[in-house]
Amino acid sequence: MQNGLPGMKTPPSYAIASVDHALRIATILQLEGSLTVADVAERLGVARSTAHRLLQMLVYRDFAVQDERRTYHAGPVLQLAEHSRSQTSLLRTVALPHLQRLAEIVDESANLTIRTGANARFIASIESRQVLRVGSREGMVFPAHRTTGGLLLLAELTAEELAGYVDAYDEDPGERPDPARLRAELARIRKQGFALNQGRSERGVVAVGVPVRDADGVVLAGLSVSMPSVRYDRDRLTSLVATLHKAAGAVEADLARV
Fold it and tell me: Domain locations in the chain?
């Protein structure tokens, strides 16, 4: 969160801006498939010359490739299956306008999250305009059971799949969720149709989310809003969930049309 509240995932004290920029570009290329120099400059808030140098270094190290139209794509080091990449890119593109409207309506930050294995990855984030706000999570990765979107996606797993998810943390017992508690929580999420996360992924932050489904009812992502806990009012929960469901429905309708 902005204003220095403690978080689960904080940048190292020795963070180097150019390294951080390069890693963010690599993440975007891997998830979305293509970028131009202008795209990178806008997304990172840097000069085009800086964006060009960063992209050229990624090309040199095979993290990116440039086509004849001077568009950059994920290189051999990053390449995912073409279908997977295009699906994530399409989901993000369709959802962004609705995330923007959602953030404006509730005046809190809005996020779109997918699950990649044991992790939840934020593929889009729109910050609130308030001074005290939850900052952008775009590109960040957390254990799925610690995020609102991740919980919504885990709630769709079969008992066998969920057991496999829990077992994935056998080598990291400090992060391994309690199976019985997690099953009970996911059952509650399935029944109520939303997830409430109070300080689970970051102290001082509350998030509420609902699933985004495809035409067959399969959950593709979690759509959520996050806010400082000092601003969370439980009496607003019902209206927040209703607004989230409306936004998720709009995303689903647009996905069905493309």
Answer: 12-74, 83-257
How does pLDDT run across 139-156, given as a tens digit for each residue?
788 899 999 999 999 999
pLDDT for the residue numbered 29: 86
At the topology level of CATH, where does 12-74 sit?
Arc Repressor Mutant, subunit A (1.10.10)
- What is the residue-wise DSSP string for 183-241? HHHHHHHHHHT-EEEESSSSTTEEEEEEEEE-TTS-EEEEEEEEEEGGG--GGGHHHHH
Backbone angles phi, psi at 246, to 5 degrees: -65, -45
pLDDT tens string 173-199: 778 899 999 999 999 999 999 999 998
* Residue 86, pLDDT above cutoff 70: no
Residue 46 tokens, joined: 């840097």
Spatial distance between the Cα atoms of 4 and 204, rounded to a whole number of angstroms: 11
According to CATH, the topology of domain 83-257 is Beta-Lactamase (3.30.450)
Tokens of 243: 């607004």
